[in-house]
Amino acid sequence: MSVHEIKPVAADVLAPDALDRLRHWAGARPRELALRHKRRGQWKAWQWADIAREVEHLAAALQQHGFGLGSRLALSGAFEPTLILLALAAKAAGGHPLPVSRELSGEALRSVLAELRPSHIYVQGREGMLRHLAALGGVEGDILLLSSASVERQSGSVRVLPLTSLYAGGPARRLRLAARRAHAAAPLWSEDGTEWDEGLGTVLHHWLDSGQCVAFPESIESASRDRLEIAPSGLLLSPARRR
């Protein structure tokens, strides 16, 4: 097994040709696995062609919710397919994905959000949503907060929407779950999150540059066990995780 020592990409999270690279792999390897993730105890797998279509769908859905040229989507949570797809969709919609450490709270989180000035935010889980709502208290300007663990509501100038609202304009094009092929080949492995400052850009850069499948654990707590199950061929880890 190899541990990849990758120089983090500078500047933007996504390289200028990131979407071109995605379309390349979707055309060259449409049925090959691109991402794998353990969800509710089951390994799920996504193919390159499905990912390209889902990014297009999510980009259009974000635009329907006011996301466009120059908009900023803050992303906070573990690296996994939903966060990866939203980062690519933000790029496809003309905006910028901005990772925010999932470990921040209170004044530290408030300061980071004030500096980044996101128009849209995606957080994983109820705890993350509540921390961001507290940090955004009294903020000027409308912000859309998306979360997989929320119901629609208004909190000051922050509008909270469930992630499923991105599919409100029509039936979702479901990603094909290639369950029978979920263990076809040993993938690369990532178990970090947005607390790794350069991590999202690093993982996306290597994934789109190499065309290799990348797998993610169900949770931090299960990462060691999930890694043993998947038997990866290489690791994409932060310096702290490597130590």
Explained architecture:
The protein is α/β, with parallel strands linked by helices. Helices cover 35% and strands 20% of the residues. It contains eight helices and twelve strands. The strands form two sheets. It has a six-stranded mixed sheet. The chain has a six-stranded mixed sheet with strand order 5-4-6-7-9-8. Helix 4 (106-116) crosses helix 5. It is globular. Mean pLDDT is 88; it is low at 4-11 and 170-174.
Present the secondary structure layout:
Elements: E1 2-3, H1 18-28, E2 33-39, E3 42-47, H2 48-64, E4 72-76, H3 81-92, E5 96-99, H4 106-116, E6 120-123, H5 125-135, E7 143-147, E8 153-155, E9 158-162, E10 188-189, H6 199-210, E11 214-216, H7 223-230, E12 234-235, H8 239-242
Parallel strand pairs: 1-12, 2-11, 4-5, 4-6, 6-7, 7-9, 10-11, 10-12
Antiparallel strand pairs: 2-3, 8-9
